[in-house]
Amino acid sequence: MREGKQKKLRRALDVLSILEQTYPDAKCSLHYTSTHELLIATILSAQCTDKRVNQVTPALFEKYPTIESFARSDINELSKDIHSCGYHNQKSKSIQGSALTILNEYQGDVPNSMEDLVSLPGVGRKTANCVLGECFNVPSMVIDTHMVRIMNLLKFVQSKDPKIIELELMVLFPEEKWIKLTHLIIDHGRAVCIARRPQCHTCGIAPFCPSNQN
Ligand code: SF4
């Protein structure tokens, strides 16, 4: 039977409330000290774990401390420096290209709008939303693999398309919770609702989840 809109909204708030109680310290797990560092860490995190990125970035940010140093880097050397994050050739091009654009077109400052961010090479909506939310406090959601999987399991969405998911979740969840929601779901996806082996028997939101296997 199709769930009514009000019932779905109520369920979304219940899930949010439980997740907030369960993961009170949920936050971005990438390490950074400036906006451009987060941008670069996020580019590196595509198809790679945050843990691996955090192993690579301390030395990387020491070697290239400014946006200028990334822009003027030797692309082959930069590629080697980020090798362990995977897709190193593509990612080095994205990092250097973004740094050059930021330097030439934005006076060295990472832009703070979706439109400008996605115009940077290798920067998609997911990376842009991460930077907007974390660094500029713009209400935004990062639709990563955990968000796609868990929001479908919860039947809050029925799509694998990140843009559709983002727009549909924006209607369900209060704007001031959007940034936090991503971190809560990522924590839940790592700890309990693990891909292909969800631990429904220990899941706090199981009573509100139509995919509960208990
Ligand atoms: S009940 Fe199971 S499927 Fe639903 S969110 Fe919890 S772990 Fe995931």
Give short descriptive properties of this protein:
single chain, 214 residues, mainly alpha, Endonuclease Iii, domain 2
Shape: elongated
CATH class of the largest domain: Mainly Alpha
Total number of domains = 2
> Any idea what the CATH architecture of the largest domain is?
Orthogonal Bundle
Question: What number is the mean pLDDT?
Answer: 97
Low-confidence stretches: none
What kind of sheet is the major sheet?
Answer: none
Question: Which structural class should the secondary elements be placed in?
Answer: mainly alpha
For this structure, the CATH topology of the largest domain is Endonuclease III, domain 1
What fraction of the residues are assigned to beta strands by DSSP? under 5%
Spell out the CATH superfamily of the largest domain.
Answer: Hypothetical protein, domain 2
Q: Cofactors and ligands present?
A: iron/sulfur cluster
Order of helices and strands: HHHHHHHHHHH
* Assembly classification: single chain
Alpha-carbon distance between the two ends: 20 Å
Count the strands? 0
Counting DSSP H or I runs of 4 or more residues, the number of helices is 11
Portion in helices: 55-70%
Radius of gyration: 19 Å
